[in-house]
């Protein structure tokens, strides 16, 4: 299958591209910069130059593909305005990809986050959050899934708050960056809130499985660790960086502070059973041992 991948050179995307190529697929990766293009070519992918805002480029990539995996996002969380811009840009990009694939029965795999279910781990049947700073991304994903009724084999892989590799990535990676700048490995509240996690190489396998066989309109959970306490995550970060560990105000975490403070464990029982996905890479707390001061 020729697969068009947006966001194919980041932490998750590079793992997805490698997984697809290893499985015998051909990959065309969207690349915004020369550096990204070189990285994609080195991995063995063809390159289509452009960014998420280049809708004509996205159309071209999707028209030439047997399937699409959408991973790209601006990842600018510096302000509410920057985050809103990224959400709107992604919405237009997904709408464009879906328009091209309408009526073709070709797969469109997009990315979402695991939802929050009060008092229990979230499952694949739980709806995405309609509130909060990234609620607009949920609306875009829901619109993509609704394309199942228009001849698109759309599916969503819901990623946990931390997708990691060698101790880097996701919300845990953000905690590490904040700790380096602030001089303290902080966590909001009492730190008992739980974050699910997955290794990037395990997540990549699930994206491939969704591309190959997920039924139209379905959602899947790329969750290996059901929920690690944020205080435990911060404790490893602090020890590895030689920094004190302490509770800090939620506001210290910027626009994502409310999400950082939320208890949000998640299950992947249905995903493992239905798609045969079996994560095998190191869990988050073990992988964080790769951090260097």
TrEMBL record:
Region (Disordered) residue spans? 257-293
Which InterPro entries does this chain map to? Epimerase_deHydtase, NAD(P)-bd_dom_sf, NAD(P)-dependent_oxidoreduct
Q: Which residues form the NAD-dependent epimerase/dehydratase domain?
A: 3-216
Q: Name one GO molecular function term.
A: aldehyde dehydrogenase (NAD+) activity
Q: Look up the record and report any one GO term of the cellular component aspect.
A: cytoplasm
The record's listing under Gene3D superfamilies reads: NAD(P)-binding Rossmann-like Domain
Query: Which Pfam family, an example, fits this chain?
Result: Epimerase
Q: What is this protein called?
A: Nucleoside-diphosphate-sugar epimerase
Q: Which organism is it from?
A: Streptomyces indicus
